[in-house]
Amino acid sequence: MLRSKLSVTLLAFVLLFATLPIQAQTAQPAPAKPSNEPVDRIKDEGMNRSQVMQTLGYLTDVIGPRLTASPNLKRANEWTRDKLAEWGLSNAHLESWGPFGRGWSLKSFHAEVTAPQAIPLIAFPKAWSPGTSGTLTTDLVYVEAKDEKELEKYKGTLKGKVVFSAPIKEIKALFDAPGRRLTEKQLLALADAPDPAKSRGGGPMDMAANKDFQEMVKNALLDVKKLKFFVNEGVAAILSPPYNGDGGTIFLEQADVPRDIKTDNPMMAMMELFLGSVNAWTVNAPKTIPQIVMSREQYNRLLRIHQAGEKLQVRMNLDVQFHDNDLMAYNTIAELPGSDKKDEIVMVGAHMDSWHSGTGATDNGAGCAVALEAMRILKALNLQPRRTIRIGLWSGEEQGLYGSRAYVKSHFGARDDEGSPMAEMAAMMGGGPPAKIATKPEYDKFSAYFNLDNGTGKIRGVYLQGNEAVRPIFRDWLMPFRDLGATTLTISNTGGTDHLSFDAIGLPGFQFIQDEVEYGTRSHHSNMDVFDRIQADDMKQAATIMAAFLYNAAMMEEKLPRKPMPKK
Questions:
Q1: N or C: which end of the chain has fewer CB within 10 A?
Q2: Integer CA distances (angstroms), 305 to 110, 116, 191, 229, 293, in order
Q3: What is the pTM of this model?
């Protein structure tokens, strides 16, 4: 009945419009002429003729994962260099830094439980894990130990076995979607955030006193002792659950190597664990054993089978290759030369290295593709900046911001306390104690660095990194993008990525606020960090805003203001 009434209504409208004068149908306003304003042209090019997804597709699907010092990363370095040169950018080249250490490639891998029944495993080896020297078929043994003393009861029983030792972790249903946009309430909280220079909370001493932090350090130190015990006992491999994730999503990073931690102070112990000089990629690293991470649900099932009294057997083969013919790593660099202020520099960057279980799409192929697209837009429009605009695609970010830190030290300057634990913390997390800066000539010619490294989410604004003086400038620059959702400026610092290498020596370095989408819940450092998790419209928006910020910074009469350096 509804359909019949609808058909009659539609027929009446057709007859009505058929009787209207011809002039009424054809009278249309004249189309607006395209704007000649540079930012409008940038917006048109970036939103309507984007190549950002094609660039990202080749970088992730074709080249694939890009572990630091691996052949895949070197291929990505060379491909991005050649692509920038093809677009007409100048001085496209690779800059070496290091030595970093050994590269690593996964040649083949499979793992399955064979008894008491066949269970193919969703699993990945950790990066820089050694191989198994052929197919391994052996018992899977659960090691239950809450401290070093309880490990002793397994002495002499584990040689040639695969062990698992983590407890069951409850998996709860996802009643909320894993993907999310920043809400107006969250954006307002960012806009109203206090000046980090005047805020005491969150420092190292506060962290060290936190009970959850202390428990985390305690568990991490126990894992260090377990690994050393397993190596000494001749364990064949370690099977573990991911540090985060469920539903077949596996979060993982690098293999662990045996080490001695000589302090009971939680903060200093954590620094030794994560900022120590001995790592799996280090040349002549301590001998370790194959380390495999499997899906949380399957891990829990295996432990429940063990608890039911069943004997488990596993078969696996891990074939890897270490690369030590070139211990250096590389950054990709290119420029759009300036005019009357060409000796001054505006920079854009993102890190090109990734982890190995996915293809490094959201972390951080997305940022690289956005930075590349921003440079392509500016060149395609033949916009002539006053300052030189330089792109840096970094390596070694995942291991400690190494590539960008090496570049900053080589070109601009360094802290006088570089290499100390507190300086390492400042480099990785921001802040830290004041330091004197030994500067180079380019330091005074530097205007700003803009970074993107929080996944595929669109830009919602900018972290000012404690630099209040840039607020009115950035507010003006965001005005043309209000319709694209980019409005928020926060005085807050944000850490964990390459803008900190610039900020650590007093240079203006900024990371954009982005919608999280599924970054923390699904794709960050996981096997689901792949092209299909990318949001194309967000990428176009981000590249367009990035191009506009670069152009505006390059065209200013003065360089961007710098925040006051703390007094020593």
A1: N
A2: 21, 9, 51, 25, 18
A3: 0.91
